[in-house]
Design a protein that fits this description.
514 residues; alpha+beta; Arc Repressor Mutant, subunit A; Endonuclease III, domain 1; five-stranded antiparallel sheet; 23 helices
Length: 514
């Protein structure tokens, strides 16, 4: 996987909730400052247990060997006096350590803390993972977050032990390794596809990070046979993982031409920074088999990260299930579907459009409306794959569409086109780095967009883990089936016990109805 050990955003979101940390088990009190984590004894106990659930929370650096590992590394446990613990791979590398060749810490899932946190550092980490530093530089990243370059560097160094350039560098190295080991691309093409400015920089970075030359990485592993412009990747995740539920959820909402679902493989079109692409995803052997076909190789990192967010692969199912199962009413649902995830989306603008289309209509009705939009405005893909032939229409195209071509009530037409105009102009931004509270405030200011729509956008487009929809009809029916008060007031009251994982509770309520 690309960008695997970069930690990520906590609970809190559009409602302005304060940040709370909910790491795994005994790591609940871990804090970090500068490069080194402040609670090494708890980390060492995790390393001693070799529990893979802790992978991604930190890395273990061994001074006597000069390497860093994931907590579950099967190598002989190092002496406590010889190890330090870092918040990220970039921090370990900045301090002179290189990646372990045995456990490959660059292949671990990202930290669920950083992937759910809503503060500026969490937002920065998600944007770095999406390749913003490679595309726009540190200044572009700081601009997106409304911070100065210096302020952002100070914040990231304080929490991650490394600045944005170092964090982006580890991303590039991991992308390069993925391409080296899984494609037949030349090293020159790989260097520029991974975001390096020169082949020399590519060679030096790979040697420093992995302690081997690129040619040795390629000779060690059999390459996966792929076609032109295609790469196959295995996306790891924490267990348990309820793949049937999340793929079924996506398949039920698949929009013809843009998405397809055959009961085994979910495929869809991607709109990426440098062009379009397609992805085919299916669960296999404890991971997700991901086949990407890209118009431009530079979009590989962004494509992988968006697929990980779509399938919620970096969540911490043990922490989520422990909180939800603590409520006797929800406990049977958790036992029936351990590892149920909260799917996000690959494109914020598309999700927002589909949320408005879904107002007060069934899932089938919303899918039909979206399919008509695609038929009218969808851009044909240069390289269609199977039933996936078009990209979803842009916000600008929908904003300019003749309202007569939208088969929905006038008030919803107006809401949809006003929102699309705001998205097209940049007045409203919906992406991995946006401030949730600010986005919600701007969306709610638009006529026709109420709390249900805005909350749904926060949950799916931004991956907010603590969204609840008390007025949702499915929530009412789900709660009543459990013998609870399904009214909005009763639902909101019951949901307080499920914080900060109410998005997951919401999916459990929906799933039992299926």
């Amino acid at each position: 996987m690309v960008a695997a050990v970069l930690p990520g955003p906590g609970p809190g979101g559009a409602s302005g909730d304060s940040h709370v940390r909910f790491p795994l088990g005994s790591l609940s009190e871990i804090r970090q400052t500068q490069d080194v984590i402040e609670d090494p004894e708890q980390c060492y106990r995790a390393v001693s247990s070799r529990d893979s659930r802790f992978d991604g929370w930190f890395v273990t650096a061994v001074r006597t060997t000069g390497i860093y590992c994931r907590p579950s590394c099967p190598a002989i446990r190092p002496n406590r006096a010889n190890v330090s613990f870092f918040a990220s791979a970039a921090a370990a590398q900045r301090n002179g350590y290189r990646a372990c060749k045995r456990c490959r810490p660059n292949a671990t899932p990202g930290s669920p803390e950083w992937n759910t946190r809503a503060d500026v550092v969490g937002r920065a980490m998600r944007l770095i993972a999406d390749g913003v530093v490679d595309r726009e530089g540190v200044h572009g990243l700081a601009d997106r977050l409304n911070y100065s370059d210096r302020q952002l560097n100070r914040l990231l160094t304080a929490e991650m032990g490394a600045g944005p350039l170092a964090l982006a560098r580890i991303q590039r190295a991991q992308t390069a390794r993925l391409l080296i080991e899984t494609t037949g691309m030349s090293f020159t093409d790989i260097a520029f596809a991974a975001g390096f400015s020169s082949v020399r920089q590519f060679n030096e970075t790979v040697r420093q990070v992995f302690a081997v030359a690129p040619s040795e990485l390629r000779s060690r592993r059999a390459r996966v046979p792929v076609g032109p412009g295609t790469v196959t990747v295995q996306l790891p995740h924490r267990v348990p993982y309820d793949a049937a539920s999340i793929f079924g959820f996506l398949g039920m909402r698949a929009v013809p031409r843009v998405e397809s679902w055959d009961g085994v493989t979910y495929a869809r079109a991607l709109t990426l920074p440098h062009g379009h692409g397609t992805v085919a995803l299916r669960p296999i052997d404890g991971a997700i088999h991901c086949e990407l076909r890209l118009d431009d190789w530079r979009d590989l990192q962004a494509g992988v990260q968006r697929c990980r967010r779509l399938l919620d692969l970096d969540a911490d199912p043990v922490a989520v299930d422990a909180v939800l199962a603590g409520d006797p009413v929800l406990a049977p649902l958790i036992a029936a579907r351990p590892g149920l995830r909260s799917p996000a989306h690959v494109d914020g603008d598309e999700l927002a459009v589909r949320a408005v289309l879904g107002q007060q209509v069934s899932v089938v009705g919303a899918r039909t409306l979206a399919a008509r939009l695609v038929q009218t405005l969808g851009e044909p893909l240069s390289y269609p794959v199977g039933a996936v032939t078009h990209a979803f229409p842009t916000a600008a195209a929908i904003a300019d569409l003749d309202p007569a071509q939208l088969a929905m009530p006038q008030s919803r037409k107006n809401a949809l086109q006003r929102m699309c105009a705001a998205l097209a102009s940049g007045e409203i931004v919906i992406d991995a780095g946006v401030d949730r509270a600010e986005m919600a405030e701007r969306l709610l200011a638009l006529p026709g967009l109420g709390p249900w729509t805005v909350s749904y956008i926060a949950m799916r487009a931004l991956g907010d883990p603590d969204v609840f929809l008390p007025t949702d009809l499915g929530v009412r029916h789900g709660l009543e089936r459990l013998g609870l008060d399904g009214s909005p007031k009763g639902a909101l009251g019951a949901s307080q016990a499920w914080r900060p994982w109410r998005s997951y509770a919401l999916h459990h309520l929906w799933a039992q109805l299926s």
